[in-house]
């Protein structure tokens, strides 16, 4: 049976969801470039922060509206390569369990996330080391931060043709369409041969090509677009002034100890029966993933050194 939750089959089996809500809150942090320790180096093209990874894993974004959680775990994968440490695998359950923890384990697909609030929550849980918004009015700085921080965590609005383009193996291209304000999605800016060519974003388990026109209308010129750096390794953190972490702390919330064992995730909800055969297979796949997750929690609780990425 195909594992629909974390399938490596391409195109993925079943629907492709989103889950990024348009920004509604702005936290009192400075721009990311203002926290950089010293002068921010000019971006040196080509930029490729994928670390050679080709399969990032769907990570539940075919059932859950957890693209925001997927985008963060995908960045943990790329920044781990940069730091020379082990990162999450493509079939990691982290994006599903964190999304469920964040939204109170609501039935899928759940409410989605606004990226700033989710980044703040990740920091409060001790799951990232810091975060800050990126000033999209200065593209040179944005690309420089992409290179220095190992990718940009960005919120876009898709055009209505993007899912079919993905399933047909075609680059995202608006083809005259405008971004749909109701179709918010979180992706990671992962490759740029130049500022306007060789562009890719990590989405739905792949680093996917996009045209310069798509990035222009769905990101740079989109009033609902946003971008952040998420610091997940000590190597990244060392590039930024300690004031960044202090300001993240000042936002409030309880920061978990890095040595705190992971909590046992709440059980997945029971879906009503009967279900169509496709969704029955889907649900069986999720239950299998839950059993694997329970085994993982037991293993990492008894042996902290085995935790994925070295974090609780």
Fold and architecture overview:
With 312 residues, the protein is of the alpha+beta class. It folds into 2 domains: 219 residues, Cysteine proteinases (Cathepsin B, Chain A, Alpha-Beta Complex); 34 residues. 34% of the residues lie in helices and 12% in strands. Strands 1, 2, 3, 4, 5, 6 and 7 form a 7-stranded antiparallel sheet that branches. Strand 5 and strand 6 form a beta hairpin. Helix 2 packs across helix 3. The longest helix has 26 residues. The chain starts with 31 loop residues before the first helix and ends in a 10-residue tail after the last helix. The N terminus and C terminus are likely disordered.
Tally of discrete structural domains: 2
Report the radius of gyration as a whole number of Å.
19 Å
Instruction: Report the mean per-residue pLDDT as an integer.
Output: 86
Please give the largest β-sheet. Answer: 7 strands, antiparallel
Outline, from the CA principal axes? globular
Question: How many β strands by DSSP?
Answer: 7
The CATH homologous superfamily of the largest domain: Cysteine proteinases
């Amino acid at each position: 049976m195909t594992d629909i939750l974390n399938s490596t089959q391409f195109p993925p089996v079943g629907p492709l969801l989103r889950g990024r809500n348009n920004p509604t809150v702005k936290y009192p942090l400075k721009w990311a470039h203002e926290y950089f320790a010293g002068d921010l180096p000019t971006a040196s093209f080509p930029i490729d922060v994928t670390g050679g990874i080709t399969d990032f894993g769907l990570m539940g974004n075919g059932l859950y509206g957890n693209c925001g959680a997927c985008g963060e775990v995908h960045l943990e994968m790329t920044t781990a390569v940069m730091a020379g440490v082990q990162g999450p695998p493509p079939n990691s359950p982290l994006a599903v369990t964190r999304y469920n923890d964040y939204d109170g384990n609501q039935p899928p697909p759940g409410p989605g996330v606004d990226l700033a609030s989710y980044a703040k929550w990740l920091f409060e849980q001790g799951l990232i080391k810091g975060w800050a918004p990126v000033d999209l009015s200065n593209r040179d700085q944005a690309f420089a931060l992409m290179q220095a921080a190992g990718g940009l965590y960005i919120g876009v609005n898709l055009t209505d043709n993007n899912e079919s383009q993905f399933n047909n193996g075609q680059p995202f291209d608006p083809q005259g369409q405008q971004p749909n304000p109701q179709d918010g999605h979180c992706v990671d800016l992962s490759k740029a041969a130049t500022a306007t060519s060789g562009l890719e974003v990590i989405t739905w388990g792949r680093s996917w090509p996009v045209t310069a026109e798509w990035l222009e209308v769905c990101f740079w010129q989109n009033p609902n677009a946003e971008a952040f750096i998420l610091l997940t390794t000590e190597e990244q953190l060392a590039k930024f002034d300690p004031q960044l972490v202090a300001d993240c702390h000042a936002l409030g919330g309880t920061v978990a100890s890095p040595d705190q064992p992971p909590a046992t995730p709440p059980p997945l909800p029971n879906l009503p029966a009967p279900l169509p055969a496709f969704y029955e297979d889907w649900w069986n796949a999720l239950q299998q993933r839950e059993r694997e997750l329970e085994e993982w929690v037991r293993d990492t609780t008894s042996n902290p050194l085995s935790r994925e990425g070295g974090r609780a």
